[in-house]
Amino acid sequence: MKEQLKHVYLFANLDDAQLGRVQEMSRGITLDDGQVLFEVGDEAPRFFLVRSGQIKLSRISFNGDEKVIELVGAGQTFAEALMFAQIPAYPVRAAALGRCELLAINSKGFLDLLRGSVESCFRMMGDMSLRLHKMVDEIDRLTMQSGTERIARFLCAQYHAEGEREFALAAPKGVLASRLSVKPETFSRILHRLADEGLVKIRASRVEILDPERLCGYSMSGF
Amino acid sequence: MKEQLKHVYLFANLDDAQLGRVQEMSRGITLDDGQVLFEVGDEAPRFFLVRSGQIKLSRISFNGDEKVIELVGAGQTFAEALMFAQIPAYPVRAAALGRCELLAINSKGFLDLLRGSVESCFRMMGDMSLRLHKMVDEIDRLTMQSGTERIARFLCAQYHAEGEREFALAAPKGVLASRLSVKPETFSRILHRLADEGLVKIRASRVEILDPERLCGYSMSGF
C-alpha cells in the first residue's frame, strides 16, 4: 500500500514514518455501483483516495437535475481541498460509478501531521506547483491540437473548393479564428506552426498549400 | 499591485500584511525581446511573476538545439517549484519573448513568511488542489472534445462511403480507438455521448446514423 500512496501527490514526499502514520489514520471502503459515499451537507471529517473504479461528484440543481461536477478516477484524491480550506461539510454528493475501492483518510490527523513539519508542506507545494505547470502545458497542447485539426480541415476545404494551391483566406483572420473556435493569438500560432512544418506558406492574408496530402491528413493523425 | 497579486495562486490567500511583506521583498524587471533573465546553472534566489508579455523556458540539447520547456504568460509564476523544493540553481534558461514585465520575488523571504504561518500554507494548498482538480477536468474535456471530433468525422466518412445509414463499424472498437488516438474507455464514452445527443444509435458493433447533418457538422462546431 505504501507504494501506491507514493504515487499520489499528497503523499509522494512523505518519509516512511509519515506514510506509516497516514496508514494508521486510513481505512478501506468498498462501494457497489451507484452506492452513495456522502450527501451534500454531510459532515466532512475525511478525504479520499480512489484505489480502483470511479467516483462521481455531483450536485442536484434547482429543477432536480443531477449536475456532474467531477469524475474522480483511480489514483486521484478528492475532498482534500476541503480539508486544506477547513470546510466542515461536503458541498457535493459522491457516489460510485461501477464497483469502487477507496481509502478514507482522517483529515484532522493528516493536517496535524503536516502541521508538525512545514518542510513536508513545502515539498508537497513544490510537487503541486510542478503539476500545475505541467497541466497548464498539457491544456495548451490540447487546445493547440484540436485547433490545429480544425484549421487544417478548414484550409483543406477551401483548397478543394478553390481548386488552386494559392488563394486568399476566405475571411479576415479574426473572423476565421472566432468561426473555428480558437483565440486569435492561437490562430496565429497555429498558422506559424503549419508553416514551420512546411505544410503551408502564409503571406498576409494569402495562403499557399505546400503539402496538401499531409495537411489534409493532419486532422486524422491525432499527432 | 496588491490587486494583481491576489489573482496569483501563491498570493491569493495572503492577508493584507502578508501581501505588504511580499511587495517589500519584490522588485520589478523589464526585459526586451530575446533578453535572457537567467541561464542554466545560475544561482536561484528568486522566483518570478510574469506581469505582461511571455517568458520562454528552454534547455539546450546535446546537439545544440534549443528545446522549449514551457512558455509562461501574464499572470503566471515560474521557478516557485524550485523554491519549494529548495533547489539552489535554475535548471533551465529563461528569456523574454517580446517585451516582458516581471516581478522578481525573494524565495527565502517568501518561504520565511510561509514558515511563520502553516495556516497560510494550508490555504495555499487548498487553492492549489482545487486548481489541480479543475485542470484534470479541463484536460478531460479537451481530450473528449478532440476525440469526439475525430470520431464524428470517422463515422461520417464511413457513412458517406457506405451510402447507408446503418452499417457495421469498420474495425473492432479497440482498433478504431487506437487508430483515432483515443483510449478505449474514452472511445466508449464518446460513442455513448453521441448516442445520448441523438446523433447515432449503437448496437454492439453496428452503428445507425440518426442525424447525419449534425454529426457531420460536429467536427467544425468546436462546441
TrEMBL record, chains A, B:
Q: Which SMART domains does this one have?
A: cNMP, HTH_CRP
Q: Which superkingdom?
A: Bacteria
Q: Cross-referenced InterPro entries, in alphabetical order?
A: cNMP-bd_dom, cNMP-bd_dom_sf, Env_Response_Regulators, HTH_CRP, RmlC-like_jellyroll, WH-like_DNA-bd_sf, WH_DNA-bd_sf
Q: Which residues form the HTH crp-type domain?
A: 145-213
A Pfam family for this UniProt protein?
cNMP_binding
Molecular function (GO) terms for this protein are: DNA binding; DNA-binding transcription factor activity
Q: Cyclic nucleotide-binding domain location, by residue?
A: 10-131
What keywords would UniProt list here?
A: DNA-binding, Transcription, Transcription regulation
* Cross-referenced PANTHER family: CRP FAMILY TRANSCRIPTIONAL REGULATORY PROTEIN, HTH-TYPE TRANSCRIPTIONAL REGULATOR ARCR
Q: What is this protein called?
A: Transcriptional regulator
Q: What broad taxonomic lineage does this protein's source fall under?
A: Bacteria, Pseudomonadati, Pseudomonadota, Gammaproteobacteria, Chromatiales
